[in-house]
Amino acid sequence: MKKISLISLGILASLQFVNAQNISSKKWTDLFSYNNVLAMKEDNGRLIAAAENGIFYYTVSTGEITKLSKANGLHEVKISAFDYNPQTKIGLVGYQNGALDVIAPDGVTYVVDIPIATGYNGSKKINHISITGDLAVISVGYGVSIFDLKKKEFKDSAFFLSGGTYEASNEATIFGNKVYAVSNTGFKSHEMNVTFPVYSTWTVEMAGSYNHIDSEGILSFSSPTTGYLYNGGVPVPLSQAFTNVHDVVVNSNNIIVTDQNRVYTFNTNGNFTNTVTFGEECNTATTVGSSVYGGTILSGIKNESNNSFKPDGPYFNYAYKISLFGENQLLVSSGGRENRFNTPINNLRNPGFYYFNGMEWIYPSYFIGNTTRFNILDVVSDPVNPDDIFFTNYNNSTGRGIYKMKYNSGSKDFTFTKNYDLGTSDFYTRRPVGLTFDDSNNLFTSIAFSGEGAAQGPLTAVGAYDRATDTFLIKNTTISGGAAQKPLYYEGLLWMPLPRVSSFLAYDYKKTINTSDDTEYILNQSNGFASNSNGTVSVAVDKSGDAWIGSDAGLRILPNAASEIKTPSTATVEPIIIEQNGLGEELFRDSQILQIEVDAGDHKWVSVDGGGVYYLSPDGQQTIKHFTKENSPLPTNSITDIKVDRKTGKVYFVSYDGIVTYQGDVADVTSDFGNVVVYPNPVVYTQFKGKVTIKGLAEITNIRIADAAGNVVHSAVARGGYYEWDLNNQRGVRVASGVYFVLMTNEDGSDKATAKIAVVN
Asked: What are the sequence ranges of the domains in the chain?
């Protein structure tokens, strides 16, 4: 007994709840998928459903749908369990990393006890949550824990430890004064008393492998093929046989068993009453009145008429690259490569790509049930014919190549047009990676594993699309190693990172699709890349014409890139040196730079693998913002793509765990002023203690801030379309309460703007 207690303390001694900082704000929005409903609860005609990355609420009578995610209140993604008490209006969300969110009328509380526990090193995923009154029983890899929802703290835990091995609780529920749990070895129980933590005192009610359990006045549980009503201490089999039980839900009127292909309902005596099919597989189901609603894997909530209800979003959360085009239209690819080169990601969902038409998300029916293995690394719209969509299928099996599809706005679907296999049937060769258009709307692709190099095997290649013959013309480069990244078009050149070799390629196609006279320019470690770099990964060119090149070992700048790249023997790439504690230090030294994006004000967004996203000043010397999954709605610290809508300032962050957007302050920056906005305004110290933002500025703006008497209290030069004032005067002291006048001119004095700021200390 003492040994078990010590184990309990080792795991949960530091139990605490955290009212975590509010990591969301009105600037953030999620573009998550809400198709895969994991759990549901009914509350007075409203269904509350948990999807992979958020909770949504559906009111049956009005059709109203609202959602809650990391962008507006939750603290994590990858939900694995959920329950809700209609009487107390409190819900509990469990995540794959073991964290919990308590959703109550007074806010959301973040609970991190299980993730930080040190005494148990197995899976900390929350397998299941069941709420009874003010208590929740939580099933984890070590067994079960009781959580007090009112106090927001853990009570007792029972560790299913036998023979030195932990056994997971698949699900558990509180029924009377007992906790009943189902595991792979049995249906077991224990009173909530002083011996609850001692696993040897638990009773095995029935041996076997059981996966689901629930209770509300009665108790029901199941094996994968048989359901039971626990009647007077005796498990009584339900009358129907099942194929593969996905869930058991008990409410005041029914037992609802979700089988692989249909949903069965039974009355509280265990008598069969009805069966419903939803045309697809469901994770769970429940009833509202006499109607059954299914929580599907692919379509959100469905009613018995097969109508679907969910927040709009992409088909799946898995995303890799994004393309912006037209009026607020998006194309999202869903592929990936292990270690950014070579082996394609094997995503069993075979997702394809997702399309947002400016109003709603559309998923091509072409991918549903398609047996071709799709690993789409890039998808773009043709500027000449925007309804024509090209995408790259990067894999080492049948069906790879570049695909062309056509969008039909009437049917809101895509039809297959052509697969360009790039002229080879070899198992490994010619895998297309990325696509880009030049300023004449010519389409180019980067190609990995094309032909054989002298030293390191397959070569990197470039493909040019010949519209006249509807074919791709392929030209091998001299780069051995076989890998490539998405190319960037700039000043008549294709700029291409090379992720398997410490080199970088600029490809001069002479503004024609004829490959016979093309020239390549190659930079390598002799040009200044880090000696420990094994490949370049990303590239962007800023307003000054400097190329920002990200590698797996840091960041380099090629000044005056379009000119310097043409003399690679003398070109030099340079690190950014910043001052840290009085010493010079290389920015992002030894970090893998996944993506670089330049906004309208020439600021840089930089994604660092495992390090989140940095927002840098135009010269990179100042970090303006640093977003991580810990301090922002980012779903992960490895963001695979960033895109900025320069007209609106909206920033898209793409990852394998989903997409979120951030409304930036820099949009459509020119040499003149735009719509100058100051916020917050007024600035009330008790409500806001940060900096005041002035946006809509010219690219270079001279700023003077004066008090009501005309005394200048602050002056500055703003670059990049916006400015943040810390409300301090020239001496570094916070200004007094009052109205302050902002007087602004652009660089040459040809345009002016004014604003007022009210300060209340």
From this structure: 677-760
Pairing of strands 143-148, 401-408: unpaired
* Contact present, 334 and 322 (Cβ < 8 Å): no
Q: How many CA atoms lie within 13 A of 246 on its CB side?
A: 21
> Are the CB atoms for 258 and 250 separated by under 8 Å?
no
Query: What percentage of the chain carries pLDDT values higher than 70?
Result: 96
Pairwise CA distance, residues 714 & 190, whole Å: 69
Beta-carbon contacts of 568 under 8 Å, excluding residues fewer than 6 positions away, are: 521, 522, 523, 527
CA dist list (Å): 497 to 401, 419, 460, 550, 552: 20, 26, 11, 8, 11
Residue partners of 191: CB distance under 8 A and separation at least 6:
177, 178
Q: Taking CA 138 as the corner, what is the angle to CA 41 and CA 176, rounded to the nearest 5 degrees?
A: 75
The distance from CA 385 to its chain's CA centroid, rounded to whole angstroms, is 30
Please list, in sequence order, all residues whose beta carbon lies within 8 angstroms of the beta carbon of residue 231, skipping any fewer than 6 positions away.
218, 270
**314, β-bridge pairs:** none
Contact by Cβ (8 Å): 603, 615: yes
Q: Which helix (H) or strand (E) holds 748?
A: none
CB atoms near residue 297 (< 10 Å): 16
The Cα 631–Cα 610 span in angstroms is: 14
pLDDT digits (tens, 9 = 90+) for 672-711: 999 999 999 999 998 888 899 999 999 999 999 999 999 9
Cβ pair 394, 432 in contact under 8 A: yes
- Measuring CA to CA, which residue among 434, 438, 449 is closest to residue 333? 434
One-letter identity of residue 19: N
User: Letter for the amino acid at 220?
Assistant: S
Hey, is 133 helix, strand or coil? Answer: coil
Q: Residues 292, 307: contact at Cβ < 8 Å?
A: no
Q: Residue 11 — very low, low, confident or very high, per pLDDT cuts 50/70/90?
A: very low
Candidates 244, 278, 238, 275; CA nearest to 260 is 244
Rg, the chain, Cα only: 29
Using a cut of 0.85, tell me whether the model's pTM lies above it.
yes
Which class does domain 677-760 fall in?
mainly beta
Instruction: Determine the Cα–Cα distance for residues 600 and 590; give it in Å rounded to an integer.
Output: 28
Tell me the pLDDT band of 485, cut-offs 50, 70 and 90: very high
